[in-house]
Amino acid sequence: FLGKIVIKIINHLFNVKFIFISKKIAMNLKIKNYQVFIPNINLNFWKVYKINKNKNFTMTCIGNLNKVKNYIQLINFLKKINFKFTLNIVGQKLLTQINYFNKLKNQVDLFNKNHHSKIILHGKKNKLEIKKILNNTSIFILPSITEGLSISLLEAMSMKRICLVSEDSNSSKIINKNNGFIFELNDESFLKKINKIKKLNKKQIIKIGRLARKKVEKLIKNYNYLLIDKV
């Protein structure tokens, strides 16, 4: 609350440009002179390098293991799926969130014990390892409670993956009905979108993936990005 007041005062008194992680935040604060934070990823690196021959339905989440990423709620949603799948969770545990990690690890172990499907905690991976995982991914999922523009989402979109993001995430602003899927943070909405994705034919998957990469290319081209991603 105090931060918002300070920003408004500075905006009123001085001619400065503010940097925001989403256009929505700037609009809510009624800031006119602002720039949106758009990461610049290496599009030549983040692309599919072989045809995915993995017949297993594979989902992937990427991000540090903290409460905001909302992985435990995601696992509760996944318990209601009626087909076999694998979920990859890529990201390092944080010392400041060790209790959350222990709860997550417990939920993963219980799930793997009681279901035919499988959840894998991969830990921290380098970019080449992440690329290999995404290359064999059917869906990239961003279940976050809140988030700025996710670099991992841009990387997955660049690799023409089907992306499913939570409505509460700021990243949902770059996903539309043509280049991905958005779900509300409840099991009914999540299952509806997952089942819809599962029924996509090859032609539909290729089209959505192509439009996803095209969206990232357009973002990087049209904005003055502020982060250089070196691969």
Features:
231 residues; alpha/beta; two-stranded parallel ribbon
The largest pleated sheet is described as:
6 strands, parallel
The amount of beta strand, in percent, is 15-25%
- The helix tally amounts to 8
What is the topology, as strand order, of the major beta sheet?
Answer: 6-5-4-7-8-9
Overall spatial form: globular
Q: Kindly report how far apart the N and C termini lie.
A: 38 Å
Topology:
Elements: H1 2-13, E1 18-20, H2 23-28, E2 34-36, E3 39-40, E4 58-62, H3 71-78, E5 86-90, H4 98-114, E6 118-123, H5 127-135, E7 139-142, H6 151-158, E8 162-166, E9 181-183, H7 187-198, H8 202-222, E10 227-228
Parallel strand pairs: 1-2, 3-10, 4-5, 4-7, 5-6, 7-8, 8-9
Question: In words, what does this structure look like?
Answer:
The protein is of the alpha/beta class and 231 residues long. It has eight helices and ten strands. The strands form three sheets. A six-stranded parallel beta sheet has the order 6-5-4-7-8-9, sandwiched between helices. β5, α4 and β6 form a beta-alpha-beta unit. The N and C termini lie far apart (38 Å). The C terminus is likely disordered.
